[in-house]
């Protein structure tokens, strides 16, 4: 049988990321969908640099992930980040979309699900994002549940996030994370964070006191079963979105999405964009802030993990 054509489905590592991984030094994966589809242009470009800087401040090398011309890249050059942030037509790629982009030579931003897959394939143990996707409100009618959840059930890495996006059905999402056996720990809290707000109103069973504990939980999980450890890192209450404004603008954004008939993978970007405009930039500022905090904590956890495996 002839050999299958050699498609570059394996991720290509930037020199800095490749060197760090080869030397056992800490690396943190970053997704590109939140840049391309979650934040408006041109603010997304500055956020991309600031998030990478936050990972470095935490003690790790950043590896922003995207697919460019059919090649999955782990660690982007400044020009490549420009491409991700500038192109309004860039595709949004979940796990199921990756093979199409690779085979047809397309470009796209990676979501939590596909970033986690590519990061783990590259040997990266820690990933920072804003908020996970999850079960949408009214999912009983729409069946809209993010592929992030099933991806995390089978991908071994730490995901640092501020909970799940508060446009979702948070209790239902936590139930699905339980069914899927995804480990969830709060960072210094047993209240599940609410993305823009510190507390979603749902409780967690477990919390970790510091980055070292988070690293130890992941080390144990990796030995026991494949799958992710979600480290839920809340904003401090004095940095959260005003909860009254939060509830008002979310109700408006979900209603607008319903009226516009938005479906599928367009729902989350539509709602986030509506929120940024309806709150006159308040949700944007808070979204960037929580991503930066998650990136720094992820850097610290990656540094602790690298220390554990050197013992
Ligand atoms: N976190 C943010 N902004 C975002 C996202 C996460 O602060 O835009 C993205 C992630 O890429 C996540 C996606 O995987 O939203 C979820 O999209 P969906 O609901 O269509 O699965
Ligand atoms: Mn969806």
UniProtKB/TrEMBL annotation:
Catalyzes the reversible cleavage of pseudouridine 5'-phosphate (PsiMP) to ribose 5-phosphate and uracil. Functions biologically in the cleavage direction, as part of a pseudouridine degradation pathway. Belongs to the pseudouridine-5'-phosphate glycosidase family. SUPFAM superfamilies: Indigoidine synthase A-like. Binds 1 Mn(2+) ion per subunit. It catalyses: D-ribose 5-phosphate + uracil = psi-UMP + H2O. InterPro entries: Indigdn_synthA-like, PsuG. It comes from Blastococcus tunisiensis. Homotrimer. Keywords: Glycosidase, Hydrolase, Lyase, Manganese, Metal-binding. GO terms for cellular component: cytoplasm. Mn(2+) binds at residue 144. Its EC number is 4.2.1.70. Its cofactor is Mn(2+). GO terms for biological process: nucleobase catabolic process. This is Pseudouridine-5'-phosphate glycosidase.
């Amino acid at each position: 049988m002839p050999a299958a054509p050699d498609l570059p489905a394996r991720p290509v590592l930037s020199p800095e990321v490749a060197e760090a991984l080869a030397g056992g030094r800490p690396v943190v994966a970053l997704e590109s969908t939140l840049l391309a589809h979650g934040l408006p242009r041109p603010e997304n470009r500055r956020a991309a640099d600031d998030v990478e800087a936050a990972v470095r401040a935490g003690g790790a090398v950043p590896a922003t992930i995207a697919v460019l011309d059919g090649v999955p890249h782990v660690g982007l050059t400044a020009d490549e980040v420009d491409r991700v942030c500038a192109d309004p037509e860039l595709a949004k790629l979940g796990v199921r979309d990756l093979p199409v982009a690779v085979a047809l030579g397309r470009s796209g931003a990676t979501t939590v699900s596909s970033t986690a897959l590519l990061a783990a394939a590259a040997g990266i143990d820690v990933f920072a994002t804003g908020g996970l996707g999850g079960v949408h409100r009214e999912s009983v009618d729409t069946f809209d549940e993010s592929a992030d959840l099933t991806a995390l059930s089978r991908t071994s890495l730490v995901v640092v996030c501020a909970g799940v996006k508060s446009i979702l059905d948070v209790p239902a999402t936590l139930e699905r994370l339980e069914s899927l056996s995804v480990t969830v720990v709060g960072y210094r809290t047993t209240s599940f964070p609410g993305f823009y707000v510190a507390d979603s109103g749902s409780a967690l069973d477990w919390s970790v006191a510091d980055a070292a504990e988070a690293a130890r939980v992941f080390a144990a999980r990796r030995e026991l079963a494949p799958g992710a450890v979600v480290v839920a890192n809340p904003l401090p209450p004095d940095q959260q979105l005003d909860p009254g404004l939060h509830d008002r603008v979310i109700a408006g954004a979900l209603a607008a999405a319903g009226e516009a008939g938005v479906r599928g993978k367009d729902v989350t970007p539509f709602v986030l964009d509506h929120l940024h405009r309806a709150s006159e930039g308040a949700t944007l500022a808070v979204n960037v802030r929580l991503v930066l905090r998650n990136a720094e904590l992820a850097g610290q956890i990656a540094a602790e993990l690298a220390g554990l495996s050197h013992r």
